[in-house]
Design brief:
7 helices; Rossmann fold; globular; single chain; 44% helix; alpha/beta; 151 residues; five-stranded parallel sheet
């Protein structure tokens, strides 16, 4: 299956926090594109990646960020596909600052957020599969299998 999900995080340090979700994607043989690009440190590279995303077949983006958490809003400002924000734990407020940033994007920048931390990443994957299942029933069995892991 071609990559339909892009997962973007702002730092290599975030990858360990997301390991459980990546493991689930691997178990279910779900292809995804992973990029580590900071919205603050390398906005030009992120802009270019976003502008190419849809042309490369990506249908859902998951932006994972902590602290100021500009990443999901930045992505949503450049694409016309669903963007899911995952706030990562850390910083002074344990990830709440990132969550508040994501759910406070300005009018016209639509993103959904699934919360803070590892569970939020897993829920973002589930939500992405729900979105993809609307247009491609091949994702439905993967979605059901993933949801059944948590029953």
């Amino acid at each position: 299956m071609k990559e339909k999900i892009a997962i973007i995080t702002g730092s290599k340090n975030d990858l360990e926090k997301l390991k459980q979700g990546f493991d689930l994607l691997g178990e279910l043989d779900i292809a995804y594109k992973l990029e580590v690009i900071s919205a603050h440190r390398n906005p030009e590279k992120l802009r270019k990646f976003c502008q190419e995303m849809e042309g490369n077949g990506i249908e859902v983006a998951i932006g994972c960020a902590g602290m100021a958490a500009a990443l999901p809003g930045f992505i949503a400002s450049y694409v016309n596909i669903p963007v899911i924000g995952v706030a990562l734990e850390g910083g002074l407020l344990g990830g709440l600052d990132a969550l508040f940033s994501m759910v406070s994007t300005p009018k016209g920048i639509g993103i959904a957020s699934t919360g803070v931390g590892k569970s939020a990443f897993i829920n973002a994957i589930i939500f992405a599969l729900e979105i993809l299942s609307l247009g491609n029933k091949e994702y439905t069995s993967k979605l059901v299998a993933l949801k059944n892991k948590f029953k």
